[in-house]
Design a protein that fits this description.
Blueprint (H helix, E strand, L loop, with lengths): L3 H8 L3 H9 L6 H13 L6 H10 L2 E8 L5 H16 L4 E8 L4 H13 L4 E4 L5 H12 L4 E4 L10 E4 L2 H15 L4 E7 L5 H17 L3 E8 L4 H14 L5 E4 L4 H10 L7 E5 L3 H8 L5 E4 L2 H18 L7 E3 L3 E3 L10 E2 L1
Parallel strand pairs: 1-2, 1-3, 3-4, 4-5, 5-11, 6-7, 6-8, 8-9, 9-10
Antiparallel strand pairs: 10-12, 12-13
Helix pairs in contact: 1-2, 1-3, 5-13, 8-9, 10-11
Organism: Anoxybacterium hadale
Protein name: Substrate-binding domain-containing protein
Length: 348
């Protein structure tokens, strides 16, 4: 078994530097830290877990979480997952703080990140806005030894540790295939999305478009409008869309604001006349399925999207354990009226 001294000699650093890298204590240049970790992995070094456990208890680890705000009740379940795992880690000296920002407010998210770091967060879990500024910020945090895990949505070309959430492109493909089946392959579809600046929303649309375009050429997308995950905006956007395009026979709701969209459908007297596919099974959505407004919903395990990133981040901060993958996809689960409360749901 290699020793810390041998690792230090190979890396050309002090034993104290190796200790700081292994236990994520203090500042170490990112390049040096990566060199030490590479040597540790190459030598299959396994630190004394008992000694590490004692060390962990002496440290106070703080994890910051930044989610999207608004009226999307989906994040209530994400937060429940976060809080559940935070309670498990409390005795290990880990605290978790949660804040939020709008999915279109890049400056607000940058400010939330800075606030978390100023408050002592050693690692961040972020539902990121898909913008160059956020990518640059994540990369800057990496260079300053503040690891980032993305959850619920992702950004490509960033130096985040890993992503936890749905494979949104496949989720969109699933919605496209489902739409083709329930409409007999012929429909005029209106799409209500949350934000064009959030990758998970745009990926769902891309998957939907590709699947229907390849397999169901008579499924046509009439228009795409945003609702900013807001129930009131969603009501107005849906009402206007259906009024402007009376030939629409189906709706695909890619994000939050499902209840607002469904209220517009009901008020226009279109219940049961449109095929409606949405995502997630929050209480309002369940009611709309039972009332016959929504045909099917595609779910993604929000509690796991809260709990797993916290566990992965703690393991990295406390023990230096890197996530075993860059991508942790949650199950894609289709629910309809018949299996809405049945745990034996269809999983793709």
């Amino acid at each position: 078994m290699p020793t810390i001294k041998q690792i230090a000699d190979l890396a050309g650093v002090s034993r104290g530097t190796v200790d700081r890298v292994l236990n994520n204590r203090g500042y170490v240049n990112a390049e040096t830290a990566q060199k030490v970790r590479s040597i540790v992995e190459a030598l299959h070094y396994a630190p004394n877990r008992y000694a590490q456990a004692l060390s962990v208890k002496k440290n106070n680890f703080k994890i910051g979480v930044i989610l999207f705000s608004g009226s999307n009740k989906f994040f209530d379940d994400v937060i429940e997952g976060i809080n559940s795992k935070a309670r498990d880690l409390r005795d290990a000296g880990c605290s978790v703080s949660v804040s939020s920002c709008l999915g279109s407010d890049v400056e607000g998210q940058l400010e939330a990140i800075d606030n978390m770091v100023e408050q002592g967060a050693q690692g961040l879990i972020i539902s990121p806005i898909n913008s160059k500024e956020i990518i640059n910020k994540i990369n800057s945090l990496y260079e300053n030894n503040v690891p980032v895990i993305t959850t619920n949505s992702d950004v490509i070309h960033s130096k985040r540790l890993c992503y936890v959430g749905s494979n949104y492109y496949v989720s969109g493909q699933t919605a496209g295939a489902l739409m083709g089946m329930i409409t007999g392959g012929v429909s005029s579809v209106g799409i209500i999305t949350g934000f064009n600046s959030i990758q998970c929303h745009t990926e769902r649309i891309a998957g939907f478009q590709d699947r229907t375009g390849n397999a169901f050429p008579d499924v046509h997308i009439v228009d795409i409008v945003e609702n900013h995950d807001d129930e009131f905006i969603s009501y107005t956007a849906t009402h206007n869309l259906l009024t402007k395009y009376p030939t629409i026979t189906a709706l695909y709701l890619t994000a939050g604001g499902v209840y607002g969209a469904c209220r517009a459908i009901v008020d226009l007297g279109l219940t049961g006349k449109l095929k409606v596919i949405c995502h997630d099974d929050i209480p309002d959505t369940k009611k709309m399925i039972l009332d016959g407004v929504v045909s099917a919903t595609i779910c993604q395990d929000p509690k796991k999207q809260g709990a797993l990133p916290v566990k992965l981040m703690f393991d990295f901060l406390a023990y230096g354990i890197k996530p075993s993958s860059e991508l942790f996809f949650t199950d894609i689960i289709i629910k309809v009226k018949d299996n809405l409360e049945n745990p034996n749901t269809v999983q793709l």
